[in-house]
Amino acid sequence: MLSLDIEQFWKDDEKAHLENCFYEGSPQAALAIRMSDECVFAELDEPGKPWLPMDRERRMDLNKRYNDKAEKIVGKRLLREYYPTKDETFPEIRKIGEIFEGRYVANENSIWLEGTVNTPSALDELIDRVERRNIRDFILPANWYSEKKRIFEKYGTKPNQVRSVRGPVTLATSLFGVENLIFLILDEPELAKRFSTIIADVIIGIIEVMDEETGYSAETSPHGFRFYDDDCNLLTPEMYSLFGYPVLKRVFEYSDRSTSYDRNKRYQHSDSAMSHLLPQLADFNLTGCNFGPTVTVAEIREHMPNTRIDGQLAPFTFMRNNEDDIISEVRRDCVAAKQTKGLNVMTAGSINNGSLLTSMRTVMAAIQNFGRYD
Predict the structure, then answer these.
(1) At what angle do helices 56-73 and 357-370 cross, to 10 degrees?
(2) Number of domains in the chain
(3) Which of helix, strand or coil describes residue 106?
(4) 304 lies in a domain?
């Protein structure tokens, strides 16, 4: 078992996050892992479905008990302990998949987006309908304005912006199907381009509406945009250039007009084997990335010298809680980033239920022993 000075670790970690994890005086690699709400079940030996909605009181009780344990094991309370009441909560706006007439369906474990079209002609007609759709009228519920006014007057809170979304490929495969999208790009590239264009139009439309509802403009907004595009790995570089790349280009150009700095201005999460797309993603000068476990720190750094790397510990390595394996992967990544900095040690994908606090402590120890920059 590696030694760990918890108090010193957190002091050093605070410095490690400065300047987007590239601070010249940083003593060690940064730690991004703060666990997740879904980890409470295995940790506390409690039943539950990690990805499905839960009763508010039970959620807060589980998180508090989890934090009591976390404080003893890793020296910090990690999860939020207060969730707004229904009276404090803004009415839910419609999601991007619904604009494309998809359905969000709950199964036993999670909520999935399912599309309603599966032929090029049906897709063409769907795009016609989406083009005519008024984004504001469609996504905001009928009671939006009265509730927005009431909540602000009573609680002083404003609605949230929308500054993240499923990436274009993942959205398209959910709505239209994986094979259908691939054949569409190969056989009907003009329609595929039209599909790509309307996705970008809709994303920017949502951003505009919710920025305005929050009181921001594109120029004053404090945030950029984050894409979550696991399925981008399914496209070849040529296919991605035609379909996915134009969406990111337009949205980043639109959302990055803010004069303020934010560490997440341009972010891409794709926990899949998408190394072949690194040269294209490098064009966007990402401020942060979280890629799949087969993508190495060295590969990322070759193409993205100024991007904070949130990774590259395999999620299943972390979830299996094998101390030696965790140390081996964290040490590998710390060594690879020693000369360049910019490493924010994180799982290369989601932190899953089953990942224990003792494993987070092991990651901390590995950083303190093998991730020092001095």
Answers:
(1) 40
(2) 1
(3) strand
(4) no
CATH code for the domain of 239 = 3.20.20.210
> With a cut of 50, which residues of the chain have pLDDT below it?
261
Tell me, yes or no, whether 49 lies in a domain.
no
Query: 87-130 pLDDT, tens per residue?
Result: 999 999 999 999 999 999 987 677 889 999 999 999 999 999 99
Residue 258, pLDDT score? 57
Peptide bond into 312 cis (omega under 30): yes
Report CA-CA distances (Å) from 159 to 63, 94, 163, 213, 262.
24, 14, 12, 7, 19
Residue located via tokens 């790349």: 245
Domain of 194 in residue numbering reads as 94-139+160-265
Q: Find all residues with CB under 8 Å of 368, minimum gap 6, and list them.
A: 2, 3, 4, 5, 8, 9, 12, 28
Q: Give the span between the Cα atoms of 269 and 112, in whole angstroms.
A: 18
- The answer to whether position 167 is within a domain reads yes
**Do the domain assignments include residue 38?**
no
